[in-house]
Amino acid sequence: MGPRLTVEEKRKRMMEIFHDSQEPFLLKELEKIGPKQKGIVAQTVKDIVQSLVDDGMCHCEKIGTSNYYWAFPSESAIKRQNRLKALEKDVEQMEAKKRELTDNIERAQLGREQTDERTSLNEELAEIETQWNAQQTELQAFKECDPALMKQKRDEAVVARDAANRWTDNIFIMQSWACEKFGMDSAAFGKHFGIPEDMDNV
């Protein structure tokens, strides 16, 4: 018994059957020829042939009730030539794109040559940016005096005061209800629930 063939070796040998004969075959015929001529296990012939059909390397045509399979050597050569042309076209497009990008880079660099004037302007720009950053830091220090921020804080204080008074009123309402319902003294109620005697609206 010879060495086991890989799937790729089986595919190659099956293509040799097609190319050598240059005629169509029924699957049953291939299942007989494969083991005898190429050492392909009969049970795997169907899967190998189908994989070739799926990859476009072999043709399958139903004639009547039977499926015929074939592949001619000239087709492989034509496919390789077409693939080569497609790749050459891709290379040509890529080279054109490269030339275009190179031209764009060269145009973009025009007027940006490193001169004494350009160096001086870059230094001046760096100095201005440093000053601007320092001013931003200084501005942050005075942010507490910002009129808009002060107004926002005043508005928030009003909202907080109203909320506190609302809850204080709610506590007084509960205290009044509990004292009336259970005959409890308001001082005892406050002591029991930890309510300060001097609690009042803000």
Automatic annotation (TrEMBL):
Record keywords: Coiled coil, DNA recombination, Meiosis, Nucleus
Q: Which residues form a coiled coil?
A: 77-131
Q: Which domain of life is it from?
A: Eukaryota
Q: List residues of the Mnd1 HTH domain.
A: 14-73
Record-level GO cellular component terms: nucleus
Q: Pfam families given for it?
A: LZ3wCH, Mnd1
Give the Gene Ontology MF terms in alphabetical order.
double-stranded DNA binding
| Major localisation | nucleus
Q: What sequence ranges are listed for the domain Leucine zipper with capping helix?
A: 150-201
Q: Which GO terms describe its biological process?
A: reciprocal meiotic recombination
Q: Where in the cell is it found?
A: Nucleus
Q: What this chain does, per the record?
A: Required for proper homologous chromosome pairing and efficient cross-over and intragenic recombination during meiosis.
Return the similarity comment.
Belongs to the MND1 family.
Can you name this protein?
Answer: Meiotic nuclear division protein 1
